[in-house]
Amino acid sequence: MACSVSLTSPICFHNANNGKTALNPSPIKTAKATPRLRTFTQFAIPPLSTAAADFASVDGAAIAVIGGSSVAALAAVLTLTDPERRRQLQAEEVGGKDKEVVREYFNNSGFQRWKKIYGETDEVNKVQRDIRLGHSKTVENVMKMLTDEGSLQGVTVCDAGCGTGCLAIPLAKEGAIVYASDISAAMVSEAEKQAKEQLQITNDDQSSPPTMPKFEVSDLESLKGKYDTVICLDVLIHYPQSQADGMIAHLASLAESRLILSFAPKTFYYDLLKRVGELFPGPSKATRAYLHAEADVERALQKVGWKIKERGLITTQFYFARLVEAVPA
After folding, report:
1. What is the pTM of this model?
2. Which parts of 119-184 fold into alpha helices (H)?
3. Does domain 97-328 have CATH number 3.40.50.150?
4. Bridge pairing between strands 306-315 and 320-328
5. Using an 8 Å Cβ cutoff, are 50 and 320 in contact?
6. 242 bridge partner residues
7. Which tens digits make up the pLDDT trace of 252-297?
8. Whole-angstrom Cα distance, residue 267 to residue 293?
9. CA 12 to chain centre
10. What whole-number distance in Å separates Cα of residue 165 and Cα of residue 322?
11. Domain extents for the chain?
12. How far is residue 39's CA from residue 322's CA, in Å, rounded to a whole number?
């Protein structure tokens, strides 16, 4: 079913038996109770992939007109190109392996680009503004998942891949004890700066000020500890499925009650549109982008004794993400 894409509109839920339904609020630490499978969707016009990151100098409207009738012809054209070869050459220039490439990118040109996208500046193009909208919807939906089940006061949350703090800061404002990490030192520094500014403003209006998130530079593999909830948004796009399975298992081992993931879903249509983005070379394309089939993610969770409780799809014109909440089976 389709719901409004407005940031302030309610999110509709449905399941196979009851049709539209509302979430039943419950304390967040009771997530181990047998969950019902619930789904939600937010649709816009046919999306293009976040895997293309951004088409800084391309008119996105010209690409967005691609429809189902032209898919076959487009696929034929794409077979004559070799974007992965071009990507490999670009990657070799900045370190070779995926992790080093990602770290280098998000500490330099990628940091400047995504700082603008995640921020509020008007110095963004149409595509970047649309990606900002899509990412903010993902954050909004995650916050709704969490707050609908009870207060976050004192709940420990690991924000794995925190970027500039788009999720960590709202979590702290709700009273959560947040541990936030990112592979990019530049991103972590910006997140700390934003948290100090925004949470200081909040302090003026509250008798009980929120706890400042603990920020740290770290890759996913190095994360340690135990948390009520672990959240990893839009990070799996940097991992091929073989490595993503291990990352999902590791993140699940850190979570006591729930694990929330977002990833670019792998379907024929989305994979084709991802390749369209790869046709436009540029320094921002040095990082490889991996789509993941929802079934593969679900199998990875099942292997470590977790099951999906809730799932949804967030899309705008240039952003799409599958969002899943998993709990111990």
Report:
1. 0.73
2. 126-147, 168-173
3. yes
4. antiparallel
5. yes
6. none
7. 999 999 999 999 998 766 666 666 655 555 444 456 788 999 999 9
8. 7
9. 20
10. 20
11. 97-328
12. 11
